[in-house]
Amino acid sequence: MAASNMSLLIRKVKVIDTQSPFHNKIVDILIENGKIVSIASSITSKAKREINLKGLHISPGFVDVFADYCEPGYEHKETLQSGLLQAVAGGYTEVFLAPNTQPTLSNKTALEYILKNTENDLVTVHPIGSITQKIEGKALAEMYDMNKSGAIAFSDGWHPVQHPGLMLKALEYVKAFQGILIQLPLDESLAVGGLMHEGQLSTKLGMPGIPNLAETTILHRDIELLRYTQSRLHITGISTEEGVNMIRKAKKEGLQITCSVTPYHLMFNDSMLKDYNSLYKVCPVLRSEKDRLALIKGLKEGTIDCIASHHRPQDWDAKVKEFEYAADGMNVQQITASILLSELSDKLPLERIIEAMTTAPRAIFGLEKVDIMEGSSANCCLYLPETSFTVETENLYSQSQNNPFIGATLKGKIIGTIHKNQSQFKY
Hints:
It contains 14 helices and 19 strands. The protein is α/β, with parallel strands linked by helices. Strands 1, 2, 3, 4, 5, 6, 17, 18 and 19 form a nine-stranded mixed β-sheet that branches. Strands 7-8-9-10 form a four-stranded parallel β-sheet. A hairpin with a 2-residue loop joins strand 3 (about 25-30) and strand 4 (about 35-40). It is globular, with a radius of gyration of 21 Å.
């Protein structure tokens, strides 16, 4: 249950926020009526609630720049309510929703439905408007009106814009209001019929492969269009070493390009498909170990800016069938932070992992700056980075269970979030 009008004292908590003067310090934090009113080595207070857990950390609330809650149209996979429950459990206070609903998020009426049905929740939802009408890739959608109605950015989501002329017009169009396009890096003509990464394993398994070229071809095209228009572009779901290199080069040139990576591309490679397990069938596909290591390096150095869960729920029937016909996607938003802390804690500083989930996405998409400091609004996540737990079905709030981590032990337990003068804790 969420509590409001809070008076909360958090004792002996370590701050992880590179923008805060208290970064890496262990302090007491007093929050009243949605504001951080005091931070000190020790606070005496008659707060209504007190939290004191050994090893507790606090950071700005997590931001997910690409997730799919399926409503309206596909409520049998996920609803706004179930999606938001698992977002809170995962430490998120802000979530960007993909436009691949039915009807699609292609006009202000569709956006208003999302905003109206999530306005009082602990999580702030930012709908992503579609680039093209009904995500058909034929004509531009009403992006100006959607921008005025609250669209955080524009994307055709799981069906990236394939027509170069249309992509050019979209990049030019959003410049009028300093908008940003989000593109999945996939040339669908090079991926037709492909089921996994094209490599030695795909040949051994006799499965049609999707070459790295399917990513780099469209990425090259979009970088050229970006250079021509001087607009803004965010690539989500980067999956190849070549792709990271291309973005690094484009950034050095000064182009306004950013990118995000999924937790499962950082965790897994194509070897997970050796048993034809459809839980690992995702888009973009899992790539080689060389690619995976390049993604970790890219995240560490900042070429990859932030994390996108690519949370994509699928019902049981969509996954439990022949691999060829199984739907793409993993259901991982609730445990994204734990996946990252488990896989990357010995490879990246904790502050870099947290920055990729908090400060970086807020800066890219122009969200309100969030800091752990006196006078700031309380928009926070509390977690125990060294505490392990087992992922169990009964503790997952999503309606779908296409999650390969069920039964696995992960590190990094989310304790709760504070946002919009509300809080929710579970410990």
